[in-house]
Amino acid sequence: MIRKLPIIPTIIVAAAIAVMIGLGIWQAGRAQQKDAALVTWRANMGRPATAYPGRDPSDEAYLFRRLSANCLRVVGWQEIGGRSKDGQTGWRHIASCATGAEGPGLIVDMGITTKPNLKIDWKGGPVSGLATHEPDGSPWIARLSGKAVPLRLMIVAETPAPGLMASAPPDPSSVPNNHRAYMWQWFFFAVVAAVIYGLAVRKRLKD
Q1: Is residue 7 left, alpha or beta, with left meaning phi > 0 and alpha meaning psi from -120 to 50?
Q2: In this structure, which long-range contacts are made by residues 92-95, counting pairs with CB atoms below 8 Å and at least 24 apart in sequence?
Q3: pLDDT tens-digit series, residues 161-191
Q4: C-alpha to C-alpha distance for 49 and 28, rounded to whole angstroms
Q5: Distance of CA 42 to CAs 53, 146, 149, Å?
């Protein structure tokens, strides 16, 4: 029976199944990492305020912790959808700030309004609030392959800019841990591929 097996297709299917199993194991590891991160992020909610980590603005250890910083001047604005602290939907106004002559700068969510394209009268100053990720504008394929630039921390300002409502503060409970679902999907795909190929080979041998 072994001599009758199609060698090349069998190798290809076996390799594909091995890759699927490997991806499932990788997702299992990612799930454990996310569980540990969520424990840290929940604890951050009760920790004292600290300075914004300017040297490493993508350090996820500071997520959901109260951070403070100084926006020397606003160099640009971004407008995206969101919710206010009291649940109203609208447009979040996110400021890109300069913090010195050099460095990656600072991203601050300065509040929300129900009117789009509103000109914000805020030139900068001290800000404080819980930290979350900046808006992710990278292609999904880059995120999936791990080649995307790490997202920087963004402060959601407790005190909004004039004319704005405070944005809803970030909450660790809103962060999904769907890696285990992906794990079982990859294992399921591996089993399905093995069963389908086994049935196809069985039919070929009977014929």
Answers
A1: alpha
A2: 92/167, 93/118, 93/120, 93/161, 93/164, 94/134, 94/135, 94/154, 95/71, 95/120, 95/122, 95/124, 95/161
A3: 999 999 999 988 877 778 888 899 999 999 9
A4: 33
A5: 19, 25, 25
Task: Return the axis-axis angle of helices 179-206 and 7-44, rounded to nearest 10°.
Answer: 170
Residue 196: Cβ within 10 Å count = 11
Quick one: pLDDT at residue 40? 87
**What are the pLDDT digits (tens) for 8-65?**
888 899 999 999 999 999 999 988 888 888 888 889 998 999 999 988 888 988 999 9
Could you say which DSSP state residue 167 is in?
B
Query: Would you state the structure tokens that stand for residue 200, as one six-digit string?
Result: 């196809």
How far, in whole angstroms, is CA 198 from its chain's centroid?
39
The SS3 assignment for 139 reads: coil
Tell which wins on pLDDT, 197 or 105: 197
Q: Which of 5-14, 133-142, 155-164, 189-198 has the lowest mean pLDDT?
A: 133-142
201: its two tokens: 């080979």
Q: Is 183 helix (H, G, I), strand (E, B) or coil?
A: helix
**DSSP annotation of 57:** T
For 13-167, list the strands marked E by DSSP.
50-51, 66-71, 73-83, 89-98, 106-113, 125-133, 153-157
3-state secondary structure of 59: coil
